[in-house]
Amino acid sequence: MAGAEAASPVAEEKAGEEEEDDLGYRLFPDRNKKPQSFLFRSLFTFHNKCQLMLRMTLETNPYAQLLLEAMKQSGCTVFNDRHFSCENCDGCVSGGFDSATSQIVLCQNNIRQQSHMNRVVTHELIHAFDHCRAHVDWFKNVKHLACSEIRAANLSGDCTLMNEIARFKFGLKGHHQTCVRDRAIRSILAVRKVSKETAEKAVDEVFDACFNDLEPFGRIPHSKTDAKRAYRDFQNRDRYNANL
């Protein structure tokens, strides 16, 4: 998997471990199964609830709406039934972006609230946007992965004040940057069998450039109000460019 939204701390890999890296697919076991029939899936509350929350996010959340519009402008239109999949996942992740299929996986067994769905969809759409606009080497270049994880943590609302308070984490100056760095490292460790030192080094080497890359928002959206303003500015920017 290209990138993942980590739901809980991930243990560091043991030094010298020789187990082959499965690129994070172990966390998404349904990826390797045959698609289930609609009738079969409709019997399970998790799947129905996931689909309903996803629809609500795509229709009403300004973070997601901006990213969907930006993807469309970049030639990568997103379709609900093609590019999103509600599946059961490992307990340590909430979602992931599968670059091999250009599909966002939403962990129906771990996402229980609409606010959580909003954040996970936004996080993974940022990975999808990066995949669309750049030649990202998700599997072999850990710096590329680190950059997208930094952007996702920075722009998705992962590190808003309210979310950090809910995690019992408090800070003053520079706390947002600290949160972004820590969550980027956690996400890398969730999907790659690398040491914590390797993940930290990759994040630190690209942090400044990737933290300051605010596309397509143009600002860090610290709240839904900020996201609405960013979405309005993005729409106005497109209208201005169309008149040139």
Automatic annotation (TrEMBL):
UniProt GO cellular component terms: mitochondrion
Alphabetical GO biological process terms: mitochondrial protein processing; mitochondrial proton-transporting ATP synthase complex assembly
Keyword set, alphabetical order: Hydrolase, Metal-binding, Metalloprotease, Protease
Top-rank lineage group of the source organism: Eukaryota
Coiled coil: none
EC nos: 3.4.24.-
Gene Ontology MF: a single term: metalloendopeptidase activity
Region of interest (Disordered), residue spans: 1-21
Database matches in InterPro entries: Peptidase_M76_ATP23
Family to which this protein belongs: Belongs to the peptidase M76 family.
Protein name as catalogued: Mitochondrial inner membrane protease ATP23
Organism: Pampusana beccarii
